[in-house]
Amino acid sequence: MPLDAITAVGPEWDIAIPEAPAVDGAPEVDGAGGSSFGGVLADQVENLSAIQNEASAQSQALVAGTAEDASEVVMAVERAQLSMQLAAQLRDKGLEAFQEIFRTQV
What we know:
106 residues; 3 helices; 63% helix; 0% strand
């Protein structure tokens, strides 16, 4: 069974999408009291940083000989790698969409 990058990363990438745009300059909020797209994006970048830092710390513990389980280190490093690949793909798709908007003739 092939692994999907989104499901392999885990629930930390679940993003709540606002249902309707804001009115009268109010910030965009989803029905559950979430934050705007920019806030969600910032949260996910912080989450990515935390995943990368955890993988780094576990790798350093493995090198120092203090890691309890090598398989946990491998899983943390793979999770960090998949998270970074997903973030890079999202960035690339966003950039492509942005460029496509500017290529559109009115």
